[in-house]
Amino acid sequence: MNPFVPLTLPNGTQLPNRLAKAAMEENLADAEHAPSDELIRLYRTWAAGGVGLLITGNVMVDRRAMTGPGGVVIESARHRERFERWAQAAQADGGRIFMQLNHPGRQMPAALGQPTIAPSAVPLDLGNFSKQFAAPREMSEADIVDVKRRFVEAAVLAQSFGFDGVQIHAAHGYLFSQFLSPIANRRTDRWGGPVENRARLLLEVVAAVRAAVKPGFAVSVKLNSADFQRGGFSPEDAKAVVGMLNPLGVDLLELSGGSYEAPAMHGQTRDGRTLAREAYFLEFARDIGAVARMPVMVTGGVRRLAVAQQVLDSGVAMVGIATALALDPALPHAWRAGSASAPALRPVTLKNKVLASLAYMAMVKHQLRKLSRGQLPNPGVAPVYALLQQQIDTTVRNRRYRRWMRQVTSH
Ligand SMILES: Cc1cc2nc3c(=O)[nH]c(=O)nc-3n(C[C@H](O)[C@H](O)[C@H](O)COP(=O)(O)O)c2cc1C
């Protein structure tokens, strides 16, 4: 199917085509963790490239709980003007923008110096890298209520800033994904155990967000089709969760997979199971698509028009693209004009899976930084160079974040 056919979501939101820029954490917030001029320029560039839907990199609902330094935080209307400019930059060429909302749970770098909370006191297992993440404390009922309130307030704020929708991040091992995982969630109360309990927080948040926003404001969910860990969130669990999401008014369900412990979202799994080299999650999407009553979007590995078409031919409504759009923000226009462009990064050959995943992320973030400064991307960037550059950027931003936290808590 031609990706340049418009799509109308269940709530009436019209998307000009079937290609979406999937969420990519940019680490480009300003000193007060609001959208910076660089971040806004990056979205203007993507919008000009013809993508139909832009999903922001994850925005934090709690300044104390960050996936990394330099993340945008949404807690109040204090930086309204910056958020409005961000939305408008993305919408300037007819595309739509959803804000991805996230809470990292235990996947919060220890260097940020904040207490870490998670469904259970189960630390991340990243081998030699485990110390980069603090051991979490088990969330209380009050913590759970607070998280729910924050997601709802953030969605209402995003709506008031002119965004077209929100995406609730329930994939990749972050907080909701931790609740869904029998490995990370060992609770014996109504938030743990059977999949109905593990999914309860996500379902309650989705229902509360849908009830709080206008019908024309879209609500999307990003869910793992599987965690790719033995004993983890399984494809059967995913199907059950989609069944429970069906009646809640979700407008778009994005399917991905993996976590920091098993970074399948970049085509690698910890247990060595091989994934198809392109459109990694398509097989799962076919299965889950049979249950889903809302439009489904599949993300992971798409960089060729023929593959995007194949994804749509299988009955999937939208194709999510991250890496390839960081390498060529004008890819949709190029494809539409008949180009066979298939942007690719230099392959990462590092043996250690965690390090390889970090290098991959660093190489993509290198492109985001370049685009945000109005420069051309550099697909040939060396993994070690990108890692080093990312390390320096992270150290500087960590320091800035800690300083900011000291200031905001002191008045
Ligand atoms: C640098 C980078 C940052 C990412 N940040 C996010 C994020 O904030 N939220 C999210 O849901 N996925 C994030 N992802 C995952 C992508 O959305 C996508 O699922 C994954 O990269 C696979 O798609 P691709 O093969 O087209 O890159 C990120 C990926 C990269 C490379």
UniProtKB/TrEMBL annotation:
- Show the CDD domains listed in the entry: OYE_like_2_FMN
Q: Which UniProt keywords apply?
A: Flavoprotein, Oxidoreductase
InterPro entries linked: Aldolase_TIM, NADH_flavin_oxidoreductase, OxRdtase_FMN_N
Where would one find the signal peptide in this protein?
A: none
A Pfam family the protein falls into = Oxidored_FMN
Specify the superkingdom.
Answer: Bacteria
Alphabetical list of SUPFAM superfamilies matching this protein: FMN-linked oxidoreductases
Identify this protein by name: NADH:flavin oxidoreductase/NADH oxidase family protein
Species for this entry = [Empedobacter] haloabium
Q: What is the lineage of its organism?
A: Bacteria, Pseudomonadati, Pseudomonadota, Betaproteobacteria, Burkholderiales
